[in-house]
Amino acid sequence: MEPEAPTSLNVVIPVYNEEHVLAASLATLRDFLQQNLAGFAWHVTIADNASTDGTLRLAEELGRAYADVRVIHLPEKGRGRALRRAWLADGADVQSYMDVDLSTDLRYFPALVDAIARDRWDVAIGSRLMRGAHTTRSFKRELISRCYNLLIKVLFFTRFSDAQCGFKAISREAARELVPRVKNQKWFFDTELLILAEKKGYSVKEIPVAWSEDPDTRVKIGSTAVEDIAGLLRLRFGGLPGPRRPRRSR
Fold first, then answer.
1. Spatial CB neighbours of 106, under 8 Å, sequence gap ≥ 6
2. Active-site residue 190, yes or no?
3. Residue 48 forms beta bridges with which residues?
């Protein structure tokens, strides 16, 4: 009897004008994966979102230097657009992503992957707001985050606590069924994906994480908040597409 093939894992890093940090972050991530996820057949996908600096050139150099690094380029910005392309075009058993600044401590990543690969959850997410999490960020961003996630619960009666932590994993099957239903292509992508997943019967595992705010973040709070509110109202009053799906057996 032939041994079972190792579970394959795609780790996506969406980037926009991240030339200054990409090489160092990739080196840290690859070293961590080699030491802590050696039992998986993993690769990293750098998803360039229409960068205007040297990010794409550097990403392509890194892709040529390392066999476990792949590069895709999108001519338009949008984290959701990048994840849609990177996840649906890839055949790995577990799809995941994290922010290039590695704001979430990598020591929580194996638990995120194991939740999908071994414990049979459909989606696994890092949470900065549940008990046991450790977060370092400004009072303003903390308040906005808590109010936003409270609004999600009020409108949709969801169970997850943190919709927008850039630290998520999803099974290949769930990604292929859910991602095409997500309409938003930007920052609201995460929230819409989680609401759809929970309302359609997919299992969502939350893991408390340690997270530190990046002072060089590309997130524009004002425009992102407008996009998020518009997205919530669209889902609340426009309806959720598709039939409910039974939970994945575990």
1. 28, 29, 32, 36
2. yes
3. 15, 73
Q: Alpha-carbon distance 242 to 7, whole Å? A: 29
- Measured CA to CA, the distance from residue 150 to residue 61 in angstroms comes to 43
Which of these, 178, 159, 157, 169, lies nearest to 92 by C-alpha position? Answer: 169
Residue 223 lies in a domain: yes
**What tens digit of pLDDT does each residue of 182-211 get?**
999 999 999 999 999 999 999 999 999 999
Q: Give the DSSP per-residue string, 150-183.
A: HHHHHHH----S-S--SEEEEEHHHHHHHGGG--
Q: Which residues make Cβ contacts (< 8 Å) with residue 206, sequence separation at least 6?
A: 124, 125, 126, 127, 130, 160, 161, 162
116 lies in some domain: yes
Q: Give 3-state DSSP helix, strand, coil % of the chain, rounded to 5.
A: 40, 20, 40
Residues 6+ away with beta carbon under 8 Å from 104? 98, 126, 165, 166, 167, 209, 210, 211
Which DSSP string corresponds to 182-239? ----STTHHHHHHHHHHHTT--EEEEE-EEE--TT----HHHHHHHHHHHHHHHHHH-
* pLDDT above 70: percentage of residues in the chain: 91
Selected catalytic residue, list 93, 99, 190, 228: 190
- Please determine, for residue 175, whether its predicted confidence score (pLDDT) is greater than 60: yes
* 3-state SS, residue 12: strand
Q: Please tell me the total count of domains within the chain.
A: 1
Q: Is residue 243 part of a domain?
A: no
Question: 191 lies in a domain?
Answer: yes
Helices and strands in the chain: count of H runs, count of E runs: 8, 9
